[in-house]
Amino acid sequence: MKRSLWAGVMAGQLAQTAALEAAFAAEPGIAPVSYRDFRQVAAQADGVRQRFPDQEAAVHWWPGAARLQRCYGIAGVDEGPRAARLAPDGYLYVPALSTLVMGDQALQACP
């Protein structure tokens, strides 16, 4: 009984957080699909992190300017040397900063 109550409370909190995030994104006009994509990038990062000794590295998402505009409605972003810095399969590991930077290469096309 306690377990199902706990699961219900957690589901309610997650739903409330998702609603707050969607409202936050709507204010500046960011498409809510960005949250779906971020969850997918985070899941991919877990697998990539296993390749390195620092498996607690912080994960950062660095989507390309084209995806930001096409998928999320964020225009005018200068991505600088982004493409040259990411590995061919879409990540950059920075041991000195204990950081794993994930790109958007593995994400599905925008809805």
Key descriptive features of the protein:
111 residues, mainly alpha, three-stranded mixed sheet, 4 helices, 49% helix
What does this structure look like?
This protein has helices spanning 2-26, 33-49, 65-72, 82-85; strands spanning 58-61, 91-94, 99-102. By secondary structure, the chain is mainly alpha-helical. The protein is built from four helices and three strands, in the order ααβααββ. The longest helix is centred in the first third of the chain and has 25 residues, at 2-26. It is flat and about 45 Å long. Strands 1-3-2 form a three-stranded mixed β-sheet, with helices on one face. The model has no long low-confidence stretch (mean pLDDT 82).
Class per helix and strand makeup: mainly alpha
Q: How large, in whole angstroms, is the Cα Rg?
A: 17 Å
Number of extended strands:
3
Strand order of the largest sheet: 1-3-2
The helix-strand sequence is HHEHHEE
Q: Span from first to last CA?
A: 40 Å
Helix content: 40-55%
Describe the structure concisely for a colleague:
The chain has 4 helices and 3 strands. By secondary structure, it is mainly alpha-helical.
What topology emerges from the helices and strands here?
Elements (H helix, E strand, L loop, with lengths): L1 H25 L6 H17 L8 E4 L3 H8 L9 H4 L5 E4 L4 E4 L9
Parallel strand pairs: 1-3
Antiparallel strand pairs: 2-3
